Amino acid sequence: MRIVLQGGTVVDGDAARYANVVVDDGIIAEIVADSESDRGVVNEADAIIDCRGRMVLPGFIDVHSHADGLLRDGGVQRALLTQGVTSVIAGQDGVSYAPGDGQYAGEYFAAINGPHRTYSGGGVAGYLAAADRESRLNVAYLVPAGTVRWEVCGRSTAPADGSQVEAMAALVDAGMQDGAVGLSTGLDYVPGIFAPSSEIAALCAPVAAAGGVYVSHMRGGYEANSDSGIDEIRSIAQAAGVRAHVSHFHADPDVVLAGMSTLDRAGVDATFDAYPYMRGCTLLGMPLLPPGLSAQPVDTVVDTLSDPIERATLRRDWFPAVERNASLGPEWPAMVTLSHIAAVEFTWACGLSVEQAADRAGLDAIDFVLDVLAASRLEVNAVMAVRHDRSADDLARIFAHPGHMGGSDGIFIGDHPHPRARGTFARYLREFVRERSTWTWGQAAAHLATAPAERFGLGRRGKVRQGWVADLIVVDPASVADTATYDAPLGEAVGIDDVLVAGRPVLRSGVMTDCTPGAGLRRDDARAPGKGR
């Protein structure tokens, strides 16, 4: 199919020019001047997209997504496409479906990744194959270290022994050979929280050998504890000789910039992602339950939370530690807003803070959250406020760092989700390009498309250039904006109405088409669409 994107401003690096982009068989065939002498390329087209007054940019790559099991969901696809996202990197935070049968992710991470309706095994190769031609979006995958640990060590909270480390490293190596782009850890989640640095470094050895990236949700809750998390990444990267990427690096800008400088001075090739919001979102049980308890089977945890004696023990021995947590503190009930609750009898509380919901239920905050967690079999997520808000100026300083890449950490599970799932990339463009000029349009393309494609080995993507894969978006620079807010988080982004994936229109004049050209992206896969990709 031959398509011409006519008369737009083509953004490639720092260059921007009025031109026609000719797409043929999924590839950018030509970029030619929009003049009378070049009308032939328009006349020969099967379809023309009028881009006058708009910009043609490379499709964005969300380097931290939790759409792992939802790529066939039309609503999720639309939420990403209207932001200009054409590819996501899944397998984040150390927990996802492959390798294994997906059971652990479906249990522990149900409130973050959701169920996967087609993957039931086959490792990374099986996961990526299940994504081929089944969605309007592309997906690349990180081998999740927590899932690997689960497959080898089960629910053990002890450091892995030598044979277990070898078995885990073999699973990681197999995943890299299947096309994974790296390894992820979630060191505040179970079971990653139990893995020592030496164990993680051993798993990074096959990642380094394959040219992949070690991607880490750091240990310790970020913010004031970021220094120790950065130091652990440094030690792992140096021991394994692996490139590093810090997930959702949110803290005071001085802390973020100092952390990246520390890694640079240590000789670690490191990048990071950060989204344009102050609040976070996570499993409710992650900060509010002891890790050793969370590691138990769900039935065991539910029984514990339902037992009055066990509750009293948690109240006495554990919740004082929650109040001492540097990211939460004693005001935690007011800082935690319930986003997804699996138990239907408690869905009325979505959108309320724990404090508000507990008051409405006539309970104190601890009893209320334990009731909700038990009734939902732990399937609860929440939006988490920060104790010390950062301004847009602070975020601009973070985003100006050359190692920054666009990542939403988008979670689509819940009646009242964090707005970052539907607003991140449009918010980057509205606030940090059009309104604040933190980036030029060319720099936005670099942070959100070019650098991620290069970093994670996604082949000839991320540029509007002849011979490259035609993952392209058409942006109205005057109107592109996010509409999702904390109070109304389901608002759809506006200003991006035409999107091509592998040269096929998947969003046309604001309407999703029936094309599903998305693919499971294998590391350094530059093969053209339609030719065995």
UniProtKB/TrEMBL annotation:
Top-tier EC class: hydrolase
One Gene Ontology CC term in the entry: cytosol
The enzyme's E.C. designation: 3.5.1.81
GO molecular-function terms, A-Z: hydrolase activity, acting on carbon-nitrogen (but not peptide) bonds, in cyclic amides; N-acyl-D-amino-acid deacylase activity
Domain (Amidohydrolase): residue spans on this chain: 48-248, 330-506
Keywords assigned: Hydrolase
Name listed for the protein in its UniProt record: N-acyl-D-amino-acid deacylase
